[in-house]
Amino acid sequence: DPAAIRAEIDRHKGKVLVLNLWATWCTPCLREIPDLMKLERELAGRGVALVALGMDDPAEFAAVEAFRAKHFAEFRSLLRDTPDMDAAVSVVDPAWNELLPTTYLIGRDGKVAKRFQGKKTLEEFRTEVGALLR
Q1: Helix (H, G, I), strand (E, B) or coil at 22
Q2: Collapsing DSSP states into helix, strand and coil, what is residue 2?
Q3: Which of 15, 72, 74, 18 is nearest to 45 (CA)?
Q4: With contact defined as beta carbons under 8 Å apart, do 55 and 21 qualify?
Q5: At residue 1, does pLDDT exceed 80?
Q6: Which strands, in side-by-side order, build the sheet including 77-79?
Q7: Is pLDDT at 33 greater than 80 in this prediction?
Q8: What is the DSSP code (8-state) at residue 127?
Q9: What is the pLDDT averaged over residues 107-113?
Q10: How far apart are alpha carbons 96 and 72 in whole angstroms?
């Protein structure tokens, strides 16, 4: 729901928000999630928050939620509730090309500062988030 995503961004204004798009079938996404969780634990005290958006088919909600709870219990994730993936992401990036994982760094002002596509390392995330914290 684009409105829910916008609400999450607005709720975290004043913080650096890491918005991660992932799916259960995306192996690079699953490899990246532990690093994103670690990043949030390390930097939460400095004003960094992590919000995820699961891009699996909305009809698979129960299976996706069971998967998340089993493998990444502390990973807070919204789940896409519209059949159109682009509509879900449009509030952040109208030009999103459906590549996963995609991670947006949203500055304290609520605007997208950086977009990563493909799996990134913890060190890459630390560097880019650190630049936004300065």
Answers
A1: strand
A2: helix
A3: 15
A4: yes
A5: no
A6: 77-79, 48-54, 16-22, 102-106, 112-117
A7: yes
A8: H
A9: 95
A10: 25
Per DSSP bridges, beta strands 112-117 and 77-79 are unpaired
Print the SS3 string covering 43-91: HHHHCEEEEEEECCCHHHHHHHHHHHHHHCCCCCEEECCCCCHHHHHCC
Residue 17 CA, chain-centre distance (Å), reads 9
Per-residue pLDDT for 85 more than 90? no
Cα–Cα distances (Å) from 82 to 31, 70, 122, 123, 124, in that order, read: 25, 24, 30, 33, 31
111 by Cβ neighbours in 10 Å (0-12 / 13-18 / 19+) ranks as: exposed
Q: Tell whether the model's pLDDT for residue 4 goes beyond 90.
A: no
What's the angle, vertex CA 125, arms to CA 121 and CA 129, rounded to 5? Answer: 175
pLDDT per residue over 34-55, tens digit each?
Answer: 999 999 999 999 999 999 999 9
d(CA 57, CA 102): 17
Query: Which structure tokens are listed for 64?
Result: 């996706």
Length of the chain, in residues: 134
